[in-house]
Amino acid sequence: MKQVDTLLCDLPLCPDSQANAKLIQAVFKQCSDWSYRNIKKDDGDFYLFYFVTIVDLERIEREIIVFLESEYAASYLVDQLPIANLTTYQTYRKVVDAINHGQIILLAPNQTLAYGFTFDQAPKRSIMEPNTEMVIRGPRESFIEHIATNLGLLRQKLQTEKLKTIPYFLGEYTRTKVVIAYLEDICELSLIEEVKLRLSRIKIDSILESGYIEEWIEDNPFSPFPQMQNTERPDVVAALLLEGRVAIFVDGTPFVLLAPINLFGALASPEDYYERYLIATMVRWLRFIFAVVSLTLPSLYVAITTFHPDFLPIPLLISIAAARENTPLPAAVEAFFMEITFEALREAGVRLPKAIGQAVSIVGALVIGQAAVQAGIISAPMVIVVSITGIASFTIPRFNFAIALRMLRFPIILLSGALGIFGLILGILAILIHLCGLRSFGIPYMMPIAPFHFSGMKDTFIRAPRWAMMRRPEQTSKKNRFRQTSSGTPEARLPTGNHHE
Question: How many helices (DSSP H) and strands (DSSP E) are in the chain?
Answer without folding.
Answer: 18, 12
